[in-house]
User: What shape does this take?
Amino acid sequence: MRTGLLRIIGAATLAYGAATAYRPGLLARPCGLVDPHGDVDPHTAMVLRPLAVRDAVSGAAMVVAPRGPALVTASAVRIASDIGDAVLFGTALPGRFRRAGAVVTALGWAALTTSALIAPPGLGHRALRMAAGGVVPDAPGTVMECGSRGRSRARGT
Assistant: This one.
């Protein structure tokens, strides 16, 4: 589990949900749920606000949940919400392009969250060190040598 990435996803979801609850047009406009002048009908805003609040609350849960089962549960709720959004918006929005865009966006967030949830911890740090030319102990292609103070250290071959 990549706790840091899950918390970043949660913070982004919290920020977007809060902003959309305040200004439903942030979601209504890209979804095509506005009048010809680009204004959001009060009834549309009333329907979108609970979705935005749900996003804000689930994002907040991902930010504050302790590592372990609580964070897994908060992340699972977020993934389920994104999949539900993909189904809802993918079947109900006007226009093929808007439906496809909503599905890709929702499933993209679900995939990102799922990836962060199932990725082994530290994978990113190891990959970053390798990319920066650092040595990763016990990585394939390394040889263990004795350091100057008698400690083992890995060295790339």
User: Anything to note?
Assistant: The chain is about 70% helix and 5% strand. The radius of gyration is 22 Å. Residues 69-92 form the longest helix (24 residues).
